[in-house]
Amino acid sequence: MATKIYTKTGDKGETALFGGKRLPKSHLRIEAYGTVDELNSWIGLLRDCIEQESVRNLLKEIQDRLFTLGSNLASDPDKEMITPDILENDVQQLEKEMDMMNEILPLLKNFILPGGHVIVSYAHISRCVCRRAERNVVALAQQESVDEIIIRYLNRLSDYLFVLGRKLAQDLGAEEVIWRPRAKDQEKK
Length: 189
What we know:
The structure is a single chain. By secondary structure, the protein is mainly alpha-helical. The chain has a single domain (21-176), classed as Up-down Bundle (Hypothetical Protein Ta1238, Chain: A), CATH 1.20.1200. The chain is built from five helices and four strands. α1 (28-49) runs antiparallel to α2 (53-73) and α3 (88-104) runs parallel beside α5. The model has no long low-confidence stretch (mean pLDDT 88).
């Protein structure tokens, strides 16, 4: 007999954390790990579009780390619980990957507009969702206990996704479109 996916326990707008504590689905903790889940899905889409095996493997590893991060955020902070760890090494791996990509990318002197290729756009969307996840976790950390490394990992991941977008643009021969702000005194036409 197949297990049913629906439990009906959330029909009144609440959900349970690991550990049993129930919270409204609008709670900042739920928003934080829900946004991490959304980010994980976007990264999965990005990974599905990339052919380079080393990048695909790293994105899969990042997805694993995001599940770890989500499980930490989805756990009752008032209970001693054993959850998987995000390690300093995970943050350092992102930094190392960025450093390697930056060595072969042209120096960035201007803001660039997201886009140029669908795959590059997926990287930028992932970056934006990652920034939103980071903002949600920072807001949660102002109210409840959150391991600092979660914020550091999300911060570094958004940087990595930006650099990855630039590297993908280079690999795909897509133009990086420079943002050129309109001068304040320019006539409106």
